[in-house]
Design a protein that fits this description.
It is a single chain. By secondary structure, this protein is mainly β. Helix content is about 10%, strand content about 55%. The protein has 3 helices and 18 strands. The strands form 2 sheets. An 8-stranded antiparallel barrel has the order 1-3-4-5-6-7-8-9. The protein has an 8-stranded antiparallel barrel with strand order 10-12-13-14-15-16-17-18. A hairpin with a 4-residue loop joins strand 14 (about 165-175) and strand 15. The chain is elongated, with a radius of gyration of 19 Å. The protein starts with 5 loop residues before the first helix and ends with a strand.
Length: about 220
């Protein structure tokens, strides 16, 4: 069976939105702008049964109120990004909350949240990053390039090694900024945004317009 797209899942909603479906703590799992992945800081959305909501981001927290329509949720709050101060088509699919809407210049935004019990500690984020990863895809200026047998390992002391079948390509010390979800590779002093796409890891350097897709080994 073919997988339904996020947009299609939202559009086929056939029953009115129920508050009970939305109440809880949600972690942002993915964000798309016109079908292109958007790098964003860790974001948690707490929807309260009494009509209020709260958002926790690494760059700051905010709160507001919401109203429900037949298939929409309308957030009202002081959100500079506008995500949580606008209307969204909403649908609950098992443990996921799917939101679809438009930004201020009419680009389509699709947000996918997963239901969680609590906001993880900073240590838990670092533990998720540490380990061995296969670097299977590089995006350079938006153009995908497959990578073969290329691996990155980060240990608990912050040492990293990047290698391929020919041997070590790069190695040195790294520092994981758990609060702002970034990694600094100290040898060339480069700063990379880090986030999880489901079970995969993403590394992005905005200045170089490079993004790596990684999957855990073992």
């Amino acid at each position: 069976m073919k997988k339904l797209s996020l947009a299609l899942l939202i559009l086929v909603a056939c029953q009115p939105l129920q508050k009970e479906e939305l109440v809880g703590l949600w972690e942002l799992e993915s964000a798309l702008r016109d079908k292109m992945m958007v790098s964003d800081e860790a974001t948690y959305l707490q929807i309260d049964p009494h009509g209020s909501y709260a958002v926790s981001r690494t760059t700051g927290d905010m709160s507001g109120v919401y109203q429900l329509g037949e298939s929409k949720i309308h957030f009202q709050g002081a959100d500079a990004k506008g995500w949580f101060n606008s209307d969204w088509k909403a649908k609950r699919v098992k443990d996921h909350l799917l939101l679809a809407g438009r930004d201020e210049i009419n680009r389509r935004i699709e947000l996918k949240f997963v239901l969680v019990d609590q906001i993880p500690t900073f240590d838990e984020f670092e533990k998720r990053v540490i380990g061995k990863w296969e670097m299977f895809l590089m995006m350079k200026e938006g153009v995908p390039q497959k990578m073969l047998e290329t691996f990155m390992t980060i240990d608990e002391a912050g040492n990293y090694i990047i290698s391929d079948k020919e041997g070590i390509m790069d190695q040195g010390k790294s520092a994981i900024n758990t609060r702002h979800h970034k990694v600094i590779f100290e040898r060339d002093d480069t700063l990379w945004d880090v986030w999880f796409w489901g079970r995969e890891l993403r590394l992005q350097n905005k200045e170089m317009d490079v993004q790596y897709h990684l999957k855990r080994v073992g």
